[in-house]
Amino acid sequence: MPSRIVVAKELASIFSILSHPDRVRIVAELRQGEKDVNGLQATLGVSHSRVSQHLSGLKAHRIVQERREGRHVFYHLTQPELANWLIQGLRFVEGEAAHTDSVRAAIREARGLWNNGGTPVAG
Fold first, then answer.
1. What is the pTM of this model?
2. Tens of pLDDT along 61-74?
3. By Cβ atoms counted within 10 A, which residue in 3, 9, 83, 105 is the most buried?
């Protein structure tokens, strides 16, 4: 099988698992370091079971790994560069001419939050 086909399939697999907004947000949140399900639940504002289901999929695709500490399970990115790649992808999303000013403002705010560990920044 030609290398381009193999690589295209691998990239498509990553795009597939990242095709849900909650999973993108989980990857972005884990950019700052490991978190447990409760921490992610509080940040994302979704149910505990929903976070767990998304983490299970991300774990199956080797995007996250877990570390156990007693009864607590902490998750971290296998390759933290993935979160940086997503943030860089915001440039593409931001450049779409069809976006409204409010969408552009939301993109800038998300970039600021993700770049600064959840601390809001101006502009």
1. 0.81
2. 999 999 999 999 99
3. 83
Q: How far apart are CA 120 and CA 123, in angstroms?
A: 9
| Other CB atoms within 10 A of residue 29 CB | 21
Q: Which domains does the chain have, with CATH numbers?
A: 3-115 (1.10.10.10)
**Alpha-carbon gap, residue 27 to 66, rounded angstroms:** 14
Please enumerate, as own/partner, the contacts of 37-43 that have beta carbons within 8 Å and a separation of 24 or more. Answer: 37/73, 37/75, 40/75, 43/118
Q: What is the DSSP string of 42-53?
A: HHHTS-HHHHHH
| Integer Cα distance of 73 and 94 in angstroms | 35
